[in-house]
Fold this sequence. Notes:
Keywords: Kinase, Membrane, Transferase, Transmembrane, Transmembrane helix, Two-component regulatory system. By secondary structure, the chain is of the alpha+beta class. It folds into three domains: 10-189, no CATH class; 205-257; 264-378, 2-Layer Sandwich (Heat Shock Protein 90), CATH 3.30.565. The chain has helices at residues 10-16, 27-31, 38-47, 50-77, 86-107, 113-125, 128-148, 157-229, 231-257, 264-277, 293-314, 346-357; strands spanning 281-283, 318-323, 327-332, 360-366, 372-378. Helix 3 (38-47) packs antiparallel against helix 4. The protein is elongated, with a radius of gyration of 39 Å. The relative contact order is 0.06.
Amino acid sequence: MTTVKSTPTLLDALAERGQQRPRPWGWLAAGIWLFYLASPLQEMAKHSEGLTRIVGIAALLLFAAGYMGFFVWIRQVGLRAGELALWQRLAYLAVLLALALVMVPAADQTALTTLVYISAVGMMALPLPVAVGVTLSLLGGAELAMRVVPGWTDDGSYGFAIFLGALAVFGMRRAIQRSIELSVARQDFAELVVQEERNRFARDLHDILGHSLTVITVKAELAGRLIQANPERAATEVADVEQLARAALADVRAAVAGYRELSLAGELVAARAALEAAGIRADLPTTVDEVPEENRELFAWVVREGVTNVVRHSGAKKATVKVGARQIEVLDDGKGPVSGSGANGHGLIGLRERADQVGASLHVGKSPEDGFRLAVRVGP
């Protein structure tokens, strides 16, 4: 079974998700937050000049490009994002921090706004203990700088913004973790269901065939020994072997039938072929659009059983299938139902059980042409 990291980073999450790729323009959601860089940009435009302003604006643009480049990059590399070494992730954050420091002469105290972006990216890209350490370092550095740098005022807003941004991204990390765990749990559950079904079917086949094949083997060996000594007894044993084999084959077919979904349209096609092969004229519907989806499987069983009876027992020259939204009829012009037989055949008994399961009623009787009529109606 698949395992999940206890505190996945965004890069780890991409690796866990395999080949699934994020939406191509999802990075624009991260770009919205660049709006807050307008504060240091405005400060540079108003209170700096010359080379200081140029360097500050250039650093700000590089910082914004580096921040957005992170999101664009992880969406391009997908699965390979998790392969990035920890020191490379820290180096990337260090570059962003260096660009933030370069802005200080031009942007003054407002350059601390960039620390919110750095802490957010760090919380995404780094293991949780390292991310917490980076966030606390940035928060402590901001608070210290506002107290020791002349002219800077400590209003607590920058430290609070750093803490709030990191907390929000931490919540996203937890959401990613829960999403991955849920996806893995679903996959594991599906695999367990499939495995359990395989085991059940294997047990069924073992139970069905184990005894029959053992008896068949014993009787076949006995018949082989009796061929010359007692031919009549050997013939009896061979007949028993044939009967056991047929019974085992019927059991296997019954077991396998539970794995096959019937299609009403497919059964109508098969019915036409079977009737034509038997020399019986077929009058069948060409469409089943009016039949609700929940009724089609039951109606498919009716077609199968009804047409089988027509071919085997009716002696009919024509067979008709009428289909409605809630009722289906199979009629022929043959010899009709045998007196006293009712609906006691194995196929009809099974069909009645299927009808009872969905609250439908089964009717057997004479058709208008004195043949056989099989009808199933869903509901009253």
